[in-house]
Sequence to fold (647 residues):
Amino acid sequence: MTVTARPADLTGGRPVVPSRGALRPLGLAEVRITGGFWGRRQHLIGSATLDHGRVWMDKLGWTGSFLRDGNANADRRGREFTDSEVYKLVEAMSWENGRLPTPGRDREITELTALFAGAQAADGYLHTAFGGPGQRPRYSDLAWGHELYCTGHLLQAAVARTRTSGGDDLLAVAQRAADHVCDTFGPDGPAVVCGHPEIEPALAELARVTGEQRYLDQAALFLRRRGNRSLPPHQFGWSYFSDDQPIRQAHTFRGHAVRALYLAMGAVDVAVETGDDELLGAIIEQFDHTLARRTYLTGGMGSRHEDEAFGEDFVLPADRAYSETCAGIAAIMLAWRLLLATGRPRYADVIERVLYNVVATSLGDDGRSFFYANTLHQRTPTAVVPEDQEQLGFGGGPRAPWFEVSCCLGNTARLLASLSAYFAAVAGDEVHVFQYADAEVRTRLADGRPVGLSMTTAYPDSGGVRIRVTETSGGEWGVALRLPDWAGDGATVTVNGQPQPVSGDRVVVRRAFRAGDEIVLWLPMHPRFTHPDPRIDAVRDCVAVERGPIVLCAESPDGAIDLDRVRVDPEVPPADYAASATPAENEKNPESTVSVSAVLEQTASTAWPYADAAAGGARTPTSLRLIPYHRWGRQGPATMRIWLPKT
Ligand SMILES: [Zn+2]
Fold:
């Protein structure tokens, strides 16, 4: 194997670079988030989250695992997959260093890379929990050992590093590991798969970076081997591993949500690179089904705590929502791949919903705490977690600084550090803008013409998005803007003050632009009631309130309001709270809040919670204030609910 140093990707780096598809994704240098909702969170990742992750991983010995020589590996600390957390942190650092290069960060990546290289066996194998003296043999526990899963995250870290800073030692480590995987599990190797998918999209992306066909072939081979029940029987069933049926024969995502979604990401990558439209179609069908029947209002996925899994169709209990942060992030990564392949803006709707209602919810204001699971209904007030305490359980409760399984933090960091690469794309002579934020876009059309856009907005607090042309070079070209499904037919667009016709899921403005031309998009941000499919029994006869892409919730810090007693009048439309609030109240709550007309119903304590007649006590009218769901749990212990029973 030879590894040649490559210049950094001229786009500034992108997580996914398909060789074909409807859209060419733009990189970190082509789209820069300059402030606003996501700018604040990107800053948080760079200034707090990455260092926080490093401190914990050092403290718990996860980075130290790479230091031990073979004789001392028996006292390795942490679960089998902690290597992956260190790799994910390095991936996040690499994107962050691409976004905002700093010598300190660059040095840190180099030092960690040296650790990995030192722990790698001569044949390329690299995992700190297997294969050493006193440890279990390599690949002796494919179902739970996470060896190939960890290798996958190593590969993705190297992809990020290579695309943001050019090829270096990390790519060499990754290629040695990938070659080892191909040598061990190639066409003549055992017909087995890893219990946790991840190696599949990682090998496909490494193939895109290096041009090595064998990596793509190996990803395709792992996909073909999945679904043949090669993993041992388990109480969760083969569906937990997506190993119950061949990927092309399935009709929905099932089993462990993150596993299923990572596998689907790899399937899209392989389908796109090999021109396998049947495989692509299978994943599209499975995703459609999952969105229609197995997804929470927040875009969260997974309603089973025991196995972190999808429930059956319409099993979406609010108070038992698992909705792991990682599943949300994987859904974004999958939707982005499908968007690039098909060009359909509705995948960007999914990305938007999950970003604002899962990812933004998970991340604490300090960048040093996060939700693992994202419930839609907190019945008992959350506890306070000391900042030095590791959480062993991860099914609910408050944002915590660290979990025994801390997959979500690194995932959030790598997504947000690279977030601008999910915002826009080019197709022919059109720039497609999918997410609205304060951002600068500078790129080239397919014919090489340089173009630039400057986007300013208070989105999602306000529905106004101002897009100014900053660079153009003669001749006609187009700007395509996504019209979110939630906006209905309420969007308006003007170009230099002149109204444009608007319909469907996007508006395309085409002309020989001049610098300074201005497109203004207005999306209707009035709060609205949302009703669930009646087959979602757990929230039948309830309503939720949304405003733009934001899901709202009722929160009761310290249980000041008994949310069990709330019933909402669906005949009175929800209203912006600001309209009725005092300036001081609005000052205190800069993010949009909404009020709904409600009653507090008297409840009685009975010995048996069932009766011949429907219960119903005295009702006290009230105006209930709702806050963005992503803001909940930030004012101390609280109860919360998104779905509100109707009067
Ligand atoms: Zn996670």
Q: What stands out?
A: Residues 36-59 form the longest helix (24 residues).
